[in-house]
Amino acid sequence: MKILEDRILKDGVVKAGNVLKVDSFLNHQMDIELFNEMGKEWKRLFAGENITKILTIEASGIGIAVIAAQYFNVPVVFAKKSQSLNLDGDLYTSKVESFTHGRVYDVVVSKKFLHEDDNVLIIDDFLANGNALVGLIDIAGQAGAKVAGIGIAVEKLFQGGGDMLRAKGYHIESLAMVESMSEDGLTFGKR
Amino acid sequence: MKILEDRILKDGVVKAGNVLKVDSFLNHQMDIELFNEMGKEWKRLFAGENITKILTIEASGIGIAVIAAQYFNVPVVFAKKSQSLNLDGDLYTSKVESFTHGRVYDVVVSKKFLHEDDNVLIIDDFLANGNALVGLIDIAGQAGAKVAGIGIAVEKLFQGGGDMLRAKGYHIESLAMVESMSEDGLTFGKR
What is the pTM of this model? Predict the structure, then answer.
């Protein structure tokens, strides 16, 4: 998606340790006009699917998922990263290792909000090694729900998570795919 | 706001310890049509203010803030609850004690995204003792920004945080104000 790639080239910053900072428009400050263009594009790309629910993960998936949901006319459920006093005990849980934070956390979704008749679109801001997505797919599977597609803002192709999941048959639509990056620059690729 | 009050009466669940669970439509599963009605209502209530930015706090403030931002045509910045590897060191920070989780955490916002010319609307899902809001107001103050208003989905009047902040002169618009609640039922009040 050209406007997202252009925005990454303009405002993204490459940091040591394969970190691409897009916090000025995607995951700390959020550009809602851009999010609407992304939501429309996912709707176009997943037009053939009868999505019943969008599943994302706190915190930076929520903004793009909620805007996208307006184009699919479905509710959003966000997975929480640890068990809170406000959640019932009746939960789907999965363990995820965070690339950014370097630790393992539990991902939880209440059993009330995912069912076997759900056709789920998973949305998240980044796809790197795919750990968070594997956790969300696991949770959808525990509910007996179908994962109809996965919409990603920025995929880092060189970290392999996207290709690992494509090989398993998942339909992934990443709006920007970073093929290589260094402090000298960044190139995009395709799949 | 009648449709939010009605929804709380229909789907909210009162739990021990003054916990009101609204996780089926507000802060775990999210009803985006309802969020749009809430966004429109905040726009009406803060129509006189020239808002430049919406400030919220992860995770459950993000969804309502992002939808509301469409009516104000401004970016959203969400405060993060602990320092992550993805954030620069150049941060505004404040300490907040969580009612729900029973612990103290740091709230951080990058200095890049709040400035002294900002006229900020703070949005959050709950207002109880007001601790999270005090932290966000503190951060806006560190940036030299003006807090033009505070938009809340559900205020628990009996916990006093809203009245404490109104007494300091803040313009708070809570779309549902719970006056009392128990497992037998719930009543709404006004301010």
Answer: 0.96
